[in-house]
């Protein structure tokens, strides 16, 4: 698997559908606090193929280096930039979850490479985010299983018990250890771009489960309101892992228009295939979206994104 270097820290990543679309453009995932690559599976399955998709492993997770913490969001953003530079990506469409959304915001403020942002369960400052509500120690299977109560709605848990079993298995094998979680938690605690949101003119889709206990809906609303080109899309009844339990709705938001579509109008392909258009959702500005209709995955059949190894690499 390829690696990128940021000031001596090696970041492992995977590229899928490298020949799709423009060679200098890709969707790039940014991960949540302490979570492994499994978290991307539901959106990865929809986006890889129509578009080149790059899946980095956050520093400290998987086979990326795990230097001693604390980390900062700015460092994590530079890790993503190193991956994009290594692949020659000039237009990165960032999809970030929680801490990964904070990384996407920081990257958008610091560089011109980000062409669009989709941030999921993300606040404008770390004081509105509870990392302990997201991560659980993979050395304690009961704690990992119990954490899903706060991350997924009761209705989802009742309908998809098989999915819960698989998510627990993936988390035990892929999520970060306690030391890396502490480093990620420090990055969250120090993050605050609330006073700079007006500077971020990159089109930004803010997706939020309205029952999110780790990051309240009000934080997402505040974020979207402060962004010049921000749009807020709440998902009714969903908790923090909204991309898992409401994957169809989230993927639809990513797929509902194309770059050539005039603002407020559904793309011709979406309209011809019956995709939900702006008539049933807030008006979408002209931004990156996949051009093909997506086949939404059953939550029980999704696999973790890509083929990233579960072995961690610690620098000597």
Describe the model.
By secondary structure, the chain is an alpha/beta fold. It has one domain: Rossmann fold. The chain has helices spanning 41-47, 73-86, 99-110, 141-151, 154-159, 161-174, 178-190, 217-226, 242-245, 247-255, 268-273; strands spanning 3-6, 9-16, 25-30, 53-56, 91-97, 114-120, 204-209, 230-235. A hairpin with a 2-residue loop joins β1 and β2. The protein is globular, with a radius of gyration of 18 Å. The protein starts with a strand and ends in a 43-residue tail after the last helix. The model is unreliable at 257-298 and 309-316 (pLDDT under 50).
- Give the total of beta strands: 8
CATH class: Alpha Beta
What's the CATH architecture? 3-Layer(aba) Sandwich
Question: What is the straight-line distance between the termini?
Answer: 20 Å
Low-confidence runs of at least 5 consecutive residues: 257-298, 309-316
**Count of helical stretches:** 11
Domain unit count:
1
Radius of gyration: 18 Å
What string, H for helix and E for strand, traces the elements in order?
A: EEEHEHEHEHHHHEHEHHH
